[in-house]
Design a protein that fits this description.
This protein is of the alpha+beta class. Helix content is about 60%, strand content about 10%. It has 9 helices and 5 strands. It has a 5-stranded antiparallel sheet with strand order 2-3-1-4-5. Strand 4 and strand 5 form a beta hairpin. It is flat, with a radius of gyration of 36 Å. The termini are far apart. One of its GO terms (cellular component) is ribonucleoprotein complex. This is Large ribosomal subunit protein uL10m. Belongs to the universal ribosomal protein uL10 family. Pfam families: Ribosomal_L10.
Length: about 250
Amino acid sequence: MQSIRGSASSLASLLGRTSFINSSRSVSSKYTRDHPRPYKRRLFEAAVEPVLPPASNTCPSLLELALTNKQQREEYVDIELALARKVKTWIRDEEFNVIAVCQFLPVAGRTLWLSKNQLRLKGLEFRNYGNRIMRKVFEDTPLSTLDVTLTGSNCFLFAKDISAIKTIIDETNKLNWIIPMAVTVGHRIISIDEASKLAKLNSLEDVRAETAQILDRIPHQLVQSLDSQSHTLVGSLEQYSQKSAE
């Protein structure tokens, strides 16, 4: 009798476990239980809530989101503004009159450091601060037109004398990972073709004289182009008035 009772109790316990297992397994695993946030997290959110901007419950449109992202990309953080001021002060204090804007291609680190030292021995300073920083440095100056060249990866060569134009052309021809795009002398911009012509001159006085001629030629060419456009406009208006009178 006791054996029957023992088997009955074990059978009942087995049935209870089976029903418990079946009841626990009947709940789907895709419904997760809510877990409240930790107390420290809620305390932190309550502390910073007065200084945070108000949260918007509506989703912004694609246009608003694009404008917001563009504004965030164009804004400068404090560390970028500080670096731009530092670079501008460094250029002014060192009295760099010649700047070469170059395309900077990938190069091994040891080769880069060796080339930097070699350029420094020849009176050229190699810098690659980034396009955003240099765009801020050139802002509100005659060199702001160089923004069109500040795309991709760029580097800059700084020199103090006009004679360094020849050094810039000669050294960049030796390095296949630096491609010059423009050279500035003071507040004037010289193309690479004109800089190459200056590099072929023999003496420093020839370089200075040819540079002065090129810089003087730029405003004269601008005036001539404006005069030709005005004469063309006047001639076309006269022809139009004659045809209308006929």
